[in-house]
């Protein structure tokens, strides 16, 4: 299904699929398969939008990894502030735990901010943070990272002792490619990287993903 783009992005932003067409795009917050269990406010299309500076750096990452037989799978890029506010509202509804088993089985959802898994002010909203993983270029199958995207728990910490040597190696392949091209990893989420030289380091945007 071809998604029609609105194409009225603020200056300095681009659609990632136009820069990196080889990547897979699974925009979880457009779907119900995310930790809230419903489409998140501000996601009107399953598109990845990113700062142009970040997109160029990510294209270099993609090119490097392609030579090793990998493609990127992108889960989330730019995120509107209204989506972050939606997460805050969701966290306050203690009765809504329909996605607990899949995404945060051992944690109380009210503590997800305090534990650093969700932020009330996010680098995603500045267009400088990306959530992604690797897939094999030949098959499109995901590389085994030891825990799924957006799983809130110690197994998602980059240096966890809960995963195998092979899974650690896979995480390192992604991390090394990202850091080489100017991204900073986040120790509690192996899939989360922020551009060190962000073009909008203190600006939080609120335009829809559409």
UniProtKB/TrEMBL annotation:
CDD domains found in the cross-reference section: D-Ala-D-Ala_dipeptidase_VanX (cd14817)
Reactions that this protein is recorded to catalyse: D-alanyl-D-alanine + H2O = 2 D-alanine
Entry keyword annotation includes Metal-binding: yes
InterPro entries linked to this entry: A_A_dipeptidase, Zn_M74/Hedgehog-like
Enzyme class: hydrolase
Site (Transition state stabilizer): 79
EC number: 3.4.13.22
Keywords, in A-Z order: Cell wall biogenesis/degradation, Dipeptidase, Hydrolase, Metal-binding, Metalloprotease, Protease, Zinc
Cofactor-binding details, from the entry: Binds 1 zinc ion per subunit.
Binding site for Zn(2+): 124, 131, 192
Names of required cofactors: Zn(2+)
Active site: 189
Function, as annotated: Catalyzes hydrolysis of the D-alanyl-D-alanine dipeptide.
Homology family: Belongs to the peptidase M15D family.
Name the UniProt record assigns to this protein: D-alanyl-D-alanine dipeptidase
């Amino acid at each position: 299904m071809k998604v029609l783009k609105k194409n009225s992005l603020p200056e300095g932003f681009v659609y990632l699929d136009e820069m990196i067409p080889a990547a897979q795009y699974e925009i979880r917050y457009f779907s119900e398969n995310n930790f809230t269990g419903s489409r998140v406010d501000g996601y009107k299309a399953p598109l990845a939008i990113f700062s142009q500076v970040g997109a160029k750096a990510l294209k270099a990452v993609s090119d490097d990894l392609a030579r090793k037989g990998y493609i990127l799978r992108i889960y989330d890029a730019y995120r509107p502030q209204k989506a972050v506010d939606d997460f805050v509202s969701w966290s306050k509804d203690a009765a809504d735990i329909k996605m607990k088993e899949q995404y945060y089985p051992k944690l109380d959802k009210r503590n997800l901010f305090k534990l650093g898994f969700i932020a009330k002010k996010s680098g995603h909203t500045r267009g400088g943070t990306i959530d992604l993983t690797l897939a094999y270029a030949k098959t499109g199958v995901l590389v085994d990272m030891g825990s799924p995207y957006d799983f809130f728990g110690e197994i998602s910490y980059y240096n966890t002792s809960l995963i195998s040597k092979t899974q650690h190696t896979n995480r390192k392949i992604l991390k090394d490619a990202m850091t080489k091209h100017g991204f900073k990893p986040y120790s509690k989420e192996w899939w989360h990287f922020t551009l060190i030289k962000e073009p909008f380091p203190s600006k939080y945007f609120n335009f829809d993903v559409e």
